[in-house]
Amino acid sequence: EAGVFTYDPGFTSTAACESTITYIDGDQGELLYRGYPIEQLAEKSHYLEVCYLLLNGELPDREQMETFERTVTRHTMVHEQMHNFFRGFRRDAHPMATMVGVVGAMSAFYHDSTDVTDPRQREVASFRLVAKLPTIAAMAYKYSIGQPFVYPRNDLGYAANFLHMCFAVPAEPYHVPPELATAMDRIMMLHADHEQNASTSTVRLAGSSGANPFACIAAGIACLWGPAHGGANQACLEMLRQIGSVDRIPEFIARAKDKNDPFRLMGFGHRVYKNFDPRAKVMKQSADEVLDLLGIHNNPTLQVAKELERIALEDDYFVSKKLYPNVDFYSGIILEAMGFPTSMFTPIFALSRTVGWISQWKEMISDPSGRIGRPRQLYTGAPARDYVEVDNR
Ligand code: SDX
After folding, report:
1. The complex's ipTM?
2. Per the confidence metrics, is the pTM higher than 0.80?
3. For residue range 21-67, what is the model confidence (pLDDT) as tens digits?
4. Which residues have a catalytic role annotated?
5. How far apart are the CA of 225 and the centre of ligand 1, in A?
6. DSSP SS3 for 37
7. Which helix (H) or strand (E) holds 25?
8. Which residues line the pocket of ligand 1, CB cutoff 6 A?
């Protein structure tokens, strides 16, 4: 029941919590955002509409959508002083390091939306984070490649604006291909929320202390960075490149099964899904579409990925462990085809998940019975004993 701690020797014990936002059935491979199947949203909706749904619980009518989109659009610029903040980082800093630092510092620039007891300030903070994370991610990317920052534009949609801020340069106009914007928008939708995963639980736990929303989201970004979590999309593409060709797949399958080898197939397995990750299915279809659009045929990385999936899904070990491709298995192939370096894969996951983190944070912080999170433990250390002077040890 809600609030009951369940102890698990793997120290993966989780504090169950009640939520109305996202539902996952790991055995059925089902994912619902506020009751709507991810497959239907990916096909018929768009990211900002999914943001409205996650934040408010219902799909918007036309007027509500226009108001929401106008408000988000008008919050996409960051405080000009924040540009200097980027310049404190080395150019080769991982964009995730920059994002953790810059988002964590946002409370120093947006004082009027840090009081979590004020519903109005909570609303403003939510809009600012949804609106500004793509700008901050794009700035982290531009800074890492030594190009000037590109300001957001109010005449572009959310995903197109992000691509424009990443790929435009002052020297010449950059026209965002609509199909790429659609593919990016779909990637954002697929990553928007995912129940009580590690980074969302981090945001909830940080928020339960009353910390400001910017600090909580920075904590979520830090947790997402790990290769077992959101960092898997970068690690997966690097693994596919390392495999290089389909004839080397058996070697890596053997390593993944070897308990003495720490190697794991990145982009495979999940704490909850013991069937196909429904997001991976949509992502796989999108990969084919984007590569076709870009005229990239016989992409070796995609060929290795598809053959690896086919072999693994027939392998007794993976079948017995119920290991299937997850959301990170195909996403990197699409992002690489779009022109992003692997270091930008997890930042894109982070900016997409920000709305989920905020929705979950708002649900937690607005619960009047809410208390600070305080996981317990099963103590297996030394029993009580008296101090021993150093010469008697
Ligand atoms: C995300 O929680 C979420 O919702 C996360 C996420 C989200 O949207 O927020 O879905 C995003 O983080 C997806 C996961 C991305 N990570 C990776 O792709 C990294 C590779 N995957 C693994 O590290 C692993 O599958 C985890 C971390 C995802 C889950 O780890 P667990 O909890 O150990 O996996 P499990 O309990 O399901 O494992 C069952 C068995 C174990 O062996 P035994 O201890 O039973 O002998 O399968 C093994 C694992 O060792 N195993 C793998 C494996 N994943 C699990 N063996 C080889 N390759 C793998 N990828």
Report:
1. 0.93
2. yes
3. 999 999 999 999 999 999 999 999 999 999 999 999 999 999 999 99
4. 270, 328
5. 15
6. strand
7. strand 22-25
8. 194, 197, 228-230, 232, 256, 264-272, 321, 323, 326-328
